[in-house]
Amino acid sequence: WYGFSYLMGFLGAYILIRKLASDGMLRLPREKVADLVLNSCIFGVLIGGRLGFVLFYDLPNALKDHITPLLWQFNDTFPYWGVLRVMDGGMSAHGGILFTLLALAWFAKKYRVSLVNILDASSMVVPIGLCFGRIANFINGELYGHITHVPWAVKFPSELFAPTNRVDEIP
Question: Which one of 23, 27, 59, 99 has the largest count of C-beta atoms within 10 Å of its C-beta?
Answer without folding.
Answer: 99
